[in-house]
Amino acid sequence: ELREAVEEVLPDLERDGVRVFYLSSVSPTPGVEALLPAIEEAPDEPLPTRHRAGVTADSKAMYIYTSGTTGLPKAAVITELKLMMVASLGRICGLRPDDVVYTTLPLYHSAGLLVGVGGCLEVGATCVLRAKFSASQFWADCRRYNVSVIQYVGELMRYLCNTPKRADDREHGVRMALGNGMRAEVWKEFLRRFGPVAVWEFYGATEGNAGFINYTG
Q1: Domain that holds residue 4
Q2: Which of 6, 21, 57, 84 could form a disulfide linkage to 35, CB 3.0–4.6 angstroms apart?
C-alpha cells in the first residue's frame, strides 16, 4: 500500500542507516526487509538486557508525525517514558490480559499505535486490527473475533449510531470503549442503542505534555 512512498525515500533512509520493514512474508523492494519471518523465528524469552542496556526513560523510542497547526506534518519525539505512560492508559481503565481489543484507527497516530497496540502489549491482551473502518462491518467483526474492548474517535461512534438499527445491535461482548472526541449526544445514543458499555474518554496530544481521562466513568 505504501510501497511507492517507501521507495521514494529509501536512498535517504539507507544513507542514514535506517532499517525498513514490510509487515509481510516477503519484500518486493530491494533494501527493505520482510518482518513476519523475523517475528515467527523470534524466541519467546524476554529480550536480553544487553540489547537495552543503554535505554533510559529519556531515550527516543520513535517519531510520530502530527499535523500541528501550520505547514507540513512535523515529527514529535516519543520517549521511552512517554511510550510507557500512554501504553499504560489501557491498564488504568481496566484492560485485562484476557481482553480482545478491536481498533480500526491508523497506526501512524498515537491512539492506534500507542494506546491500542501498545496497551495490548503492556498487559498481554489480544489486538485485532482492521485496515480500514467499516460502519457496516464493525459489530460483525466484534462478534466474529469475540471483541471485548473497542477504540474510537468521536466521529467513528457517530457513524455507528447513524447505521440502520438492527435486532442484534446489543448482541456483542464489548464491555469497554476507549477513545476521545465523542459528543455528548452521540455518547447517550450509543449507550441507548448498543447497551451498557463503559466509555473511557481521554484528552491528549502527541506533541503535548499532559492528558486527561474520565477515570470515574
Answers
A1: 1-42
A2: 21
Residues 6+ apart with CB under 8 A from 127: 100, 101, 103, 116, 117, 120
Q: Is residue 97 located within the same domain as residue 196?
A: yes
* Same domain flag for 13 and 99: no
Residues 204 and 97 in one domain: yes
138 contacts 193 by C-beta, under 8 angstroms: no
Cell (9 digits) for 84: 510507557
| Number of folded domains that form the chain | 2
Output the CA–CA distances (angstroms, integers) from residue 154 to 118, 129, 139, 202, in the order listed: 21, 19, 17, 11
Q: What is the pTM of this model?
A: 0.87
Yes or no: say if 149 and 176 are a contact pair by the CB < 8 Å rule: yes
Per-residue tens of pLDDT for the chain, all 217 residues: 789 999 999 999 999 999 999 989 999 999 999 999 999 998 888 888 898 889 999 999 999 988 766 778 888 999 999 999 999 999 999 999 999 999 999 998 899 999 999 999 999 999 999 989 999 999 999 999 999 999 999 899 999 999 999 999 999 999 999 999 999 999 999 999 999 999 999 988 888 777 888 876 5
- CA dihedral of residues 107, 110, 113, 116 (deg, nearest 10): -120
Judge if 127 and 201 occupy the same domain: yes
- CATH code where residue 159 lies: 3.40.50.980
Same-domain pairing of 121 and 34: no
Chain position carrying cell 491512539: 111
